[in-house]
Write a structure and sequence with these properties.
The chain is an all-alpha fold. It is built from 18 helices and 2 strands.
């Protein structure tokens, strides 16, 4: 009987170790550690930006590209990275991505110019685009559907969401006690250790029949890249100036619309589609992708604006800001474990609705923040509620999006989840930034006019700067960011509507009755696949089941 169970487990996990094999725990540790490294890199660098600006002489507008260069290549190449794992072997792409990410981090740490650092950050994004979808797809092929996969995804989800908060804390520690260069150097030993462990712990994954869809790869990658570039360039700046009408923004968004429309047409006709349309015919999976993008919008927005608020208004240091997110991380970890226990008992749908409702309520609560409030009264409670709600959403949406995906499509299905989260984050910063900074600028002008009028009536001169100017600015930030959090609550409410109206998954659907269907191997006993065998022509299109970023 035990031999039968062992064979069943290995069949259910065609691309990695068997779920009940000798080292599934180590495999999960390796995959979660890699995802944590990729995700925290998006925030760990944010804390070091002032030090980077002073050291390398970045301008204010150029400094944002230390973050955007990574986001652009990471978001733009996720689909291609996921498909590469499906065709060329997921373990191979996972290790290659880790090594590339680590090498770029090492180079970035030694950067002595703006161009050097930005190039390294862009290459980091390429490595991350290989690692993230490969890690999630390896979980789906290693752990069979049902409780084993639910538990694995709860750990993975915790690492994916907690990475942002851990990055802020780690960045604060490194910049305070070491140097800004260590926010990049720290990736090198971690990446090397994870890559070495992956080669030993993860079973070799076979290459599959198929070719790269060159037209789809070009239009899809360029379209997503243009969309991310347009969005990160469009947000209203802190001085209240909107950039949505800038020529580069209009051109980028128009190019993205044309390229993505062409991509959609190509994918419906391609035999080897990069994004197989069949993956989107499942309403539950499509609803999960849409809802996941919404999660990206409000989570990225919350991290950005709350971090700026605590540092600019309350005077928090980078380290203290990171510590302030520890309760959020704790709530997230507890809720991830709770979701793993509840899904087999009550199904995913009640947990989805609870997660959306909690996130909506927490963001609305956070929108009441003011410059006179305290951390305990205005931030502690809301962030814990948001952390718990986000964890419930992340675990269940990942399960639904990857449920019953053919094994050959698991890489692209995973990358689609990652793409949704990454695009959601870019949309969130552009949309919420436009709302928040516009309100901030209007509030400053209104308060300044009121103060000038009051001074004129009293016969006193108005002195620029000083305590009055600081009070006006702090109140404007509280007002504008509060409005941004309110819009984020509206996005969370939209995810609640999507989860209620679109996703109809039943408890039995996630019970593990059906395992991923193995794809035919590409003559594994014969000669290795050559470059000619993977010619970029028409590529099978697989839907990415994203990871979180």
């Amino acid at each position: 009987m035990s031999e039968i169970r062992s064979k069943t487990a290995r069949a259910a996990a065609p691309g990695g170790v068997a779920a009940d094999g000798p080292r599934p725990g180590l495999a999960l540790l390796v995959l979660a550690a890699a995802q944590l490294m990729v995700v925290l890199d998006a925030t760990i660098v944010n804390v070091a930006l002032p030090d980077i600006q002073r050291a390398l002489g970045f301008s204010g507008s150029g400094l944002e590209w230390v973050v955007n260069a990574y986001a652009l290549t990471f978001g733009g190449l996720l689909l291609l990275g996921g498909r590469a794992g499906d065709l060329l072997g997921r373990r191979e792409m996972f290790i290659a991505g880790l090594l590339l990410f680590s090498a770029a981090s090492l180079a970035g740490g030694f950067a002595n110019s703006e161009a050097f650092l930005l190039t390294a950050r862009a290459v980091q994004g390429v490595g991350g685009a290989l690692v993230a979808p490969a890690a999630l797809s390896l979980i789906t092929t290693t752990f069979p559907e049902g409780p084993p996969r639910t538990r694995a995804l709860s750990v993975y989800a915790a690492m994916s969401i907690a990475g942002g908060a851990i990055g802020l804390l780690g960045g604060g520690l490194l910049t305070t006690y070491a140097s800004w260069r260590w926010v990049l150097f720290v990736n090198v030993p971690i990446g090397a250790a994870v890559a070495l462990a992956a080669a030993r712990v993860l079973a070799d994954t076979p290459r599959r029949r198929g070719r790269f869809d060159l037209p789809g790869a070009i239009t899809g990658t360029a379209g997503i890249g243009a969309l991310v570039y347009g969005l990160v360039s469009a947000a209203t700046s802190p001085d209240g100036v909107s950039h949505w009408g800038d020529a580069k923004v209009v051109a980028s968004l128009a190019a993205a619309a044309v390229l993505l429309a062409a991509f959609a047409v190509i994918e419906t006709r391609s035999r080897y589609a990069l994004l197989p349309v069949r993956l989107l015919r499942d309403r539950n999976r499509t609803g999960a992708y849409l809802s996941f993008a919404g999660v990206g919008i409000f989570v990225f927005g919350m991290f950005f604006f709350l971090t700026v608020f605590m540092q600019a208004v309350w005077g928090y240091s980078a380290l203290k800001t990171g510590v302030a997110y520890l309760p959020f991380t704790a709530a997230l970890l507890v809720a991830s474990g709770t979701a793993a226990q509840l899904v087999p008992k009550i199904g995913a749908r009640p947990i989805l609705l609870a997660g959306s409702a909690a996130s909506t309520g927490g963001l609305y609560w956070l929108s009441r923040i003011s410059e006179h409030a305290t951390y305990t009264s205005a931030v502690l409670g809301p962030t814990m509620v948001i952390g718990a709600g986000t964890a419930l959403l992340f675990v269940t949406l990942s399960l639904i999006a990857l449920n019953r995906v053919p094994e050959a499509d698991s890489g692209v299905a995973s990358s689609l989840l990652n793409t949704g989260q990454q695009l959601g984050g870019s949309i969130g910063l552009a949309l919420l930034g436009t709302v928040a900074w516009t309100v901030v600028a209007h509030s400053i002008h209104a308060q300044a006019a009121y103060a000038a009028a009051a001074a004129a009536r009293a016969g006193h001169p108005v002195h620029p700067g000083g305590p009055l100017a600081a009070a006006i600015y702090n109140h404007a930030l509280a007002t504008g960011f509060g409005r941004g959090f309110l819009v984020a609550a509206g996005i969370a409410l939209l995810t609640l509507i999507i989860n209620f109206a679109v996703i109809r998954v039943r408890r039995a659907d996630l019970a593990g009755a059906q395992q991923p269907v193995p794809a035919p191997l590409a003559q594994p006993a014969q000669r290795p696949v050559t470059a000619k065998d993977t010619t970029i022509g028409e590529t099978p299109m697989t839907t990415p089941a994203s990871t979180p970023g």
